[in-house]
Amino acid sequence: MVSRRQLVTLSVLCGACGYIPVASSFSGLVELSRRKSCRQQQTLLYSKWGGPRTGVRLPLLDVSDESSWILPLPSSHLPAPLTTPYVYGMSVHRPVHRMLMDNAVSEAKAEKILSGASTSTPPAALFGHVAWRDPLTSTSDDKMENHSLLGAIGCATEILAMDKKGSDAEDNSDDDKTADSVTCLVRGSFRFVVKEVVQIFPYPVAIVDQLVDRHDQAPSTVFQDPDEMYSDLSVDDIISRIKQAMDTLLERRLEPPPTLSPLEQSILEQVNTASPLNLKNAMNQEEAQEMTAVWDVFIDSVLEDYLFALGIMAAEIGQANNELRTQMLIETNGVQRLRIVLKELDRQNGLASAQKLAETIVEESSDPDEKELKVGTPEMPPWTKSIQIGMRVEYYWSEADGWCAGAVAEKPMKVVDELIITVLFDDGETHRLPFHPEEKVRWRPPQ
């Protein structure tokens, strides 16, 4: 996956294609955010809603076998300046996928010409990312077949720019065989559900309808969390907590990178990687500033279906993984989607707070052994081997709640390299929590 901060370079490479990435208009949004003396003084009224799209013909990509691709989230409900978080880079290597991209762009251009539209307008070249297929119509052996795609859910994606890489790509840009890979600049458009499959070879093509939220509908049963702790929160409480969690997350990203120790700096200089590291830190800081500006303007905007817009925006800026993005697309109950997002934001902020606390403890420690540079894969602390039913443990829940004490209620279950521990906390709540080596700072024996 191409980094968002590399999209500027990609847009320059693709300049000959006539596409102008939406990110080029972002400086005005940053300036708007900086000028606001308070959030209540600036309101952006916006509506794109003209009814859901129906009968849209889309070529389809299955992202389940491409871990390097980010599953796009929809942004067609937003004004253009707020869609910059939804712009992604994709490196496409398979010939059939390159063919799909080429055909999508060519067909969009042809449609513009036939309809009499101005050829200077960037064509809306769309394809669909399939995120989930109905298990009732699919099996493990019929991947991307006709019957397995009916009812599938995904996100339509617009191609903003393409850059072909290959030995003869410059001389034969229209010949798919000469390109070893294609790097595309894309943007999530709208959420869809497959209604009909009209083509299978060489790639699937389907007729899709836009999938919209139905707030009177029960939450999806595809993803269920038996330890959900947010079900009793009101909608206003959930929205308020999401805004607070996002502010905390963005403030953390805006913090300057930690200063390297002399030993770490020496190692980086020896392998000649100090400059790339500094460049990466600078790029991360710039991206954090952009996302903060987007969020500041977004929360003052008046948008149709605000629950949908808030959940999707928080998941995107929160850099949700593909599993969570799939949940965002499948869920058609806006309140339940907000609960899922809030849980993830709390997890990220809680882990960051615990790591910061652990770093502070190590830094203040007088034991030189605890200050040694650790290299390699994190390991479980030795005391985890003695965890059993009835044992007292403490878990760092969040910065607000701090360390929460409780007792192990069930026998720990090992799943790959992590433990699943059920804890009955002293406040009476029971939760099943993961104990992973990378999150070991969130667990400790009673102090």
Structural features, described:
By secondary structure, the chain is α+β, with helices and mostly antiparallel strands. It has helices spanning 7-13, 26-35, 95-114, 146-149, 235-254, 262-270, 274-298, 306-317, 322-330, 334-364; strands spanning 44-45, 56-62, 87-92, 125-132, 153-165, 181-199, 205-210, 301-302, 392-398, 402-408, 413-415, 418-425, 430-435, 443-444. It folds into 3 domains: 4-36 and 51-210, Archaeosine Trna-guanine Transglycosylase, Chain: A, domain 4; 235-371, no CATH class; 382-444, SH3 type barrels (Roll), CATH 2.30.30. The chain has 10 helices and 14 strands. Strand 11 (413-415) and strand 12 form a beta hairpin. The longest helix is centred in the last third of the chain and has 31 residues, at 334-364. It is globular, with a radius of gyration of 24 Å.
Q: Please, what is the CATH homologous superfamily of the largest domain? A: LON domain-like
The domain count comes to 3
Q: What summary fits the major beta sheet?
A: 6 strands, antiparallel
- The ordered H/E elements are HHEEEHEHEEEHHHEHHHEEEEEE
Q: Could you tell me the radius of gyration in angstroms?
A: 24 Å
What name is given to the CATH topology of the largest domain? Archaeosine Trna-guanine Transglycosylase, Chain: A, domain 4
Separation, N- and C-terminal Cα atoms: 44 Å
Shape: globular
Number of helices: 10
